[in-house]
Amino acid sequence: PDATAAFVPQFLDAIAQEAAGVEHRDRLERRTRQAAALGDRLPGAVLRWAVAEGERVRGRFQARFAGFDAVLGPTLPCPPPPVGQLHGVGLVRALLRSLPMTAFTALANVTGLPAVSLPAGPSREGLPLGVQLSATGSDEGVLLGLVAGLEELSG
Description:
Largest sheet: 3 strands, antiparallel
Structural class: alpha+beta
Strand content: 5-15%
Low-confidence stretches: none
Mean pLDDT: 93
Oligomer: single chain
Helix content: 40-55%
Strand order of the largest sheet: 1-3-2
Order of helices and strands: HHHEHHEEH
Number of helices: 6
Radius of gyration: 17 Å
Distance between the termini: 34 Å
C-alpha cells in the first residue's frame, strides 16, 4: 500500500514539533524552517486524516501479508542519489525529489509497525544498498530475532 499521502502531513508536523524545541530556530536551515512553518499551519483535520489513513494503510498491509511474521523488501527503490541533489533547492522541490526515496520506509513511519533496515552490500557503483524487514504485527521481537539470526549467519 502507498503511504505517501499519510506520510507528508505527519512528516511536516514532526518537523514542526522538533523545531519548536530548538532554542535558536533561526539557526536551522532555510528548508527546515520552511517545513516547520508549514507543519505549524497544518489544519488539525489534515493531521487527523493522515493518522487515520496510516491506520488504514496498516490494515491493508496486514491483510495482504496475513500469515507472515515479516516482509523483506528494499529499503530504497533505487540506488542512493548523488550527494548534493537537494543543495540549494526549496522545500517543495526537495520534497518532490525526496519522496520517491521514501516509498518503502514511509510505510513503517505511518503504520507504526516495526521495521529495520539492514546493509545488503554495495551497488555496482560501490554505493551502499539495504533491505528492510517489516513486521506484520506490533511485536518487534520478531524482527530482533530475525536480525540476530542473520547476524549470526553473516559472522
